[in-house]
Recover the amino acids of this structure.
């Protein structure tokens, strides 16, 4: 056939007819060069109408995906509980000794629970030392005037009442003896503060000039004196628009350690407790946690006389591991670039593990590998670390592992396979426990409660979550040696 076409081209007039024999005979056809039109021919399908339909379809698919992730609870019942706290009944308060309130309207928001919680604990401690009533705030993710926002293609509550996470003096709970009946000393909500403190009655104290780089105890003493100089003001707010009261550099350094003795003895940390909602989630999963003594699911107050044994306070045989992934894939290499050390509380001298900086002559890749082993370990590296912790542990053998993690299920399964092969009897992860929608909304606090109650806690020394768990375990009087790091 190809030979026949070549022969026809030799006949005058036949070549052109052969080339266009499939084209319609139309004397009015477009005479413009066809080669210039063909590259853009596909664009004739992208009309404005079709583009709008396509964009609308994509938007609908995204919204369906977001809704399928579930609608978070509003926690309206817990908010109503906060409203009816006895100190929020104005008629029940003493008129002879009216409360003096202290609020920090520039508190941290839009960050993870543990960054917010560590700041709130120290702010509550400052209020306690200055003789004022702490004004607690919602856990705020967004200031949108809507109940939900979108984060990671899922709905997320813009605000959650603090009592969904914690209770006790920090969140308006009763104080320990001898002040358990002193309503005028109990923390109040921001909503109540705004009712009893009109703008005209609020005295504002600026944070400018505070020695933020000083030792933690010295910084707190400065603030106590500064607030003591505010005479005759029932309602005080601290203006942090120019500089925070307690910044991340304090919590990330050894300067915070000087606060721990007084903080642990204060009602703020000494009587700290997770919320009933968090405890209900832990109790619901007793079959996973398997306490030898069910009382370990409901920890007693931190200050008891006489003290009780660790076997009554911990989940025996359980190692809780904080294995952070997600954003830490970017964060951990940055730590290597900065030459960072462990978070402040994680450098406590009573703790057995220390982080050694890589040698000064280490290459960039060697330094990063050193950090990743402690910050973002592989399943094999984690198995090796847990093997060493189990071998060094005294007393009854450690048999089970619970992994506090935000990792995908496939990664947790790879870790599980490594640990089971190394002889661990059971390996569970955050995704394995059963939670209802309200409990899932405070899932990080549920993980923290399990980490606080485990016989041994293996944390990430660079993490504020680990730092807070270690602080709570130390405040409970658990052995410092039961806190280990990756």
């Amino acid at each position: 056939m190809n030979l026949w076409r070549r022969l026809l081209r030799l006949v005058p007039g036949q070549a052109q007819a052969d080339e266009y024999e499939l084209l319609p005979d139309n004397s009015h056809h477009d005479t413009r060069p066809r080669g210039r039109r063909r590259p853009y021919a596909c664009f004739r399908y992208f009309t404005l109408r079709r583009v709008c339909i396509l964009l609308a379809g994509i938007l609908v698919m995204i919204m369906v995906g977001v809704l399928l992730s579930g609608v978070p609870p509003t926690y309206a019942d817990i908010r109503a509980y906060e409203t009816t706290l006895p100190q929020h009944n104005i008629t029940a308060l003493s008129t002879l000794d009216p409360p003096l309130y202290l609020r920090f309207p520039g508190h941290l928001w839009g960050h993870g629970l543990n960054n917010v919680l560590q700041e709130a604990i120290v702010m509550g401690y400052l209020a306690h030392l200055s003789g004022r009533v702490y004004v607690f705030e919602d856990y705020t993710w967004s200031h949108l005037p809507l109940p939900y926002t979108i984060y990671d293609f899922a709905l997320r509550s813009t605000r959650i009442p603090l009592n969904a996470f914690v209770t006790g003096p920090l969140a308006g709970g009763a104080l320990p003896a001898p002040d358990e009946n002193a309503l005028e000393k109990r923390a109040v909500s921001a909503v109540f503060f705004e009712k009893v403190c009109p703008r005209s009655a609020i005295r504002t104290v600026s944070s400018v000039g505070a020695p933020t780089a000083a030792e933690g105890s010295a910084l707190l003493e400065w603030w106590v004196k500064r607030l003591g100089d505010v005479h005759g003001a029932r309602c005080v707010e601290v203006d942090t628009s120019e500089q925070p009261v307690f910044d991340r550099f304090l919590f990330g350094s050894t300067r915070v350690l000087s606060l721990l003795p007084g903080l642990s003895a204060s009602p703020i940390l000494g009587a700290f407790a997770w919320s009933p909602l968090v405890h209900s989630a832990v109790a619901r999963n007793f079959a996973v946690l398997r306490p030898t003594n069910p009382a370990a699911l409901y920890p007693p107050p931190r200050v008891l006389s006489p003290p009780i044994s660790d076997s009554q306070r911990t989940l025996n045989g359980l190692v809780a591991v904080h294995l952070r992934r997600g954003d830490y894939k970017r964060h951990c290499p940055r730590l290597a670039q900065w030459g960072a050390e462990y978070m402040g509380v994680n450098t406590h001298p009573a703790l057995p593990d220390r982080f050694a900086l890589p040698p000064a002559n280490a290459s960039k890749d060697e330094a990063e590998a050193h950090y990743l082993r402690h910050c973002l370990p592989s399943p094999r590296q984690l198995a090796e670390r847990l093997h060493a912790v189990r071998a060094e542990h005294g007393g009854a053998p450690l048999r089970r592992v619970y992994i506090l993690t935000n990792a995908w299920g496939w990664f947790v399964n790879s870790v599980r396979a490594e640990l089971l092969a190394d002889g661990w009897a059971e390996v569970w992860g955050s995704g394995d426990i059963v939670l209802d929608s309200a409990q899932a909304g405070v899932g990080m606090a549920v993980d923290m409660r399990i980490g606080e109650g485990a016989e041994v806690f293996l944390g990430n020394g660079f993490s504020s979550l680990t730092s807070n768990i270690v602080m709570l375990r130390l405040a409970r009087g658990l052995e410092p040696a039961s806190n280990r790091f990756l």
Observations:
- The radius of gyration is 31 Å.
